[in-house]
Amino acid sequence: MEYKPTIGLEIHAELKTNSKMFCSCKNDPNERHPNVNVCPVCMGHPGVLPVINREAVRKTIKTGLALNCNIPETSKFDRKNYFYPDLPKGYQISHSGGSSLVDFNRAGIPLMELVTEPDLSLAKEARRFAEELQLILRYLGVSDADMEKGQLRVEVNISLSKGQKLGTKVEIKNLNSFRTVERSIDYEIERQTGVLDKGKKVVQETRGWNETKGTTVSQREKEQAHDYRYLPEPDLPTLHLNKKFIQEIKAEIPELPQQRRKRLAQEYNLDEKSIEIFTFNKDLGEYFEKVMSELRNWVKEVDVKEKVGKDEFLKLTKLAVNYIITDLQGLLKSASVLGEDFLITPENFAEFLTLIYKSRISSKIAKTVLKEMFGTGADPSHIIEEKGLTQLTDIGEIEKIIKDVISKNPKPVEDYKKGKENALQFLTGQVMAVTRGRAKPDTVQQLLKKFL
Ligand SMILES: [Zn+2]
Questions:
Q1: Which of 110, 171, 347, 438 is 20 to 30 Å from the Cα of 266, by its Cα?
Q2: In 281-328, which ranges are continuous DSSP H helix?
Q3: What is the Å distance from ligand 1's center to 29 Cα?
Q4: Looking at residue 162, what DSSP letter applies?
Q5: pLDDT tens across 358-384, in order?
Q6: Is 2 helix (H, G, I), strand (E, B) or coil?
Q7: Using alpha carbons only, how large is the chain's radius of gyration in Å?
Q8: 241 within 8 A of 61, measured Cβ to Cβ
């Protein structure tokens, strides 16, 4: 039988702040030594006084504003007292050699919770939502939102229904990859359909994801709000936010992924795939735009003499996209263009593209030049001068080489005359080798045909 799934998400993101939420201990997710960043406040000693982290509040408000949420003028703090079956002491323990190990470095790290309306109905939608949220958090600089490091966690609420009334909700906790978000929802839809089809009732509960089996597993029956024993926090005052403070934060919101996609499409006429690469990889996208701005300057300078029209400029844009996405990313591997080791300035990259555009270098030579630029940071004209890599455009010189290759390779020449096309490829290769890749293969082939 067909049921309508209703899905809501609850997402936790660790905020990127210098210090923890209520004390001045360092918020360092990469700290490997246990209990380095601790103090009586984050260890929960009695009698200590917590202080709210202003930066964490700012970043949370910034996220709210970026997502078009309403920001309440006042917020009060409650303390949650709840016995977690998997967290009896309120902190994580692991057993090693019979002793109990505890690390408080992560205690008190600011965590932001984002709860959606039950507005989604497909596993794929939920995944895309979480992926886009990750991107927004990164654009805002509020969280690195790395799922593998536990900086972003997704919980799914899902129920099935046939009519208007929503069905019983099941919660899937602690999903640590986008793939498991999608898979666990698909699994739950199937499982709950099975339960309902048998005329049974879905139990309201919390389930976890078993990666090995690819199933959700019951963890505990769902607690109610009163189970958490909320108490108003006596040591933290109510937070009053004035409009000016909120306006200030609003003004700091940068261009967001969706705006960037639109702009990249309008300004550069890029295809969807390139837009996605330059949006997801923000640094690379910004580098591309800097290169394009250099190219625009170059076009302005040469315009009078050589005329680079609109269509021609589109060709240059395509060159920039291809060389940045394919060749440059290949050299970078997973490093960033913002890294200290990255030496190619946008000016040099733009110049490199104009050399290809003007056929000063072949695409084969271009790869060598780019590699050299990547390694040394030298400018491309300098590299091609120094290494004698300019494109061979002197037809007379190419013809001389061709005649020489023909006389030295009688067998392939004969084969070609008998109709073997492969022989032409071989001869072209020989000519290219003599010119060290400096001739244009098209030109070489045309001239070869003439002489054969
Ligand atoms: Zn502390």
A1: 347
A2: 282-306, 310-322
A3: 14
A4: S
A5: 888 888 889 999 999 999 999 998 898
A6: coil
A7: 31
A8: yes
Residue 108 backbone zone (phi > 0: left; psi -120 to 50: alpha; other: beta)? left
CA gap 147, 129 in Å, rounded? 14
CB burial of 275-284 (b: ≥16 within 10 Å; e: otherwise) equals bebbbebbeb
Instruction: Give the C-alpha distances (Å, rounded to integers) separating 163 from 156, 160, 259, 347.
Output: 21, 10, 37, 61
Burial label, 63 (beta-carbon count in 10 A; 0-12, 13-18, 19+): buried
Kindly give the distance from the C-alpha atom of residue 103 to the centroid of ligand 1, in angstroms, as a whole number. Answer: 12
Q: How many CA atoms lie within 13 A of 395 on its CB side?
A: 7
- 63 Cα: distance to centroid of ligand 1 (angstroms): 25
pLDDT tens digits, 68-106:
999 999 988 887 765 554 444 554 444 755 555 677 888
Q: Tell me how far the alpha carbon of residue 71 lies from the centroid of ligand 1, in angstroms.
A: 28
> In sequence order, what are the beta bridge partners of 246?
none
Q: In 3-state terms, what secondary structure has residue 208?
A: strand
> Which residue shows structure tokens 């490091």?
149
* Rounded distance from Cα 253 to ligand 1 centre (Å): 29
Spatial distance between the Cα atoms of 438 and 360, rounded to a whole number of angstroms: 9
> Rounded to the nearest whole angstrom, what is the distance from the C-alpha of residue 48 to the centroid of ligand 1?
10
Beta bridge partners of 182: none
Where do we find the tokens 């492969």? 422
HSE-CB at 239 with a 13 A cutoff on CA atoms is 20
- Buried (b) or exposed (e) across 5-29, using 16+ Cβ within 10 A? bbbbbebbbbbbbebbbbbebebee
Q: How far is the CA of 55 from the centre of ligand 1 (A)?
A: 16
| 3-class secondary-structure state, position 253 | coil
Looking at residue 113, its pLDDT comes to 94
Q: How far apart are CA 49 and CA 42, in angstroms?
A: 10
Nearest to 321 by CA among 271, 365, 267, 260: 271
159: nearest Cα among 222, 104, 101, 202: 202
Tokens representing residue 388 in the block: 């004698």
Tell me the sheet residues that pair with 12: 113, 153
279 CA distance to ligand 1 centroid (A)? 37
Contact 142, 63 (CB under 8 A): yes
User: Locate tokens 């926090």: which residue?
Assistant: 233
Distance (Å, rounded) from C-alpha 160 to C-alpha 155?
Answer: 17
And the tokens for 335?
């490093």
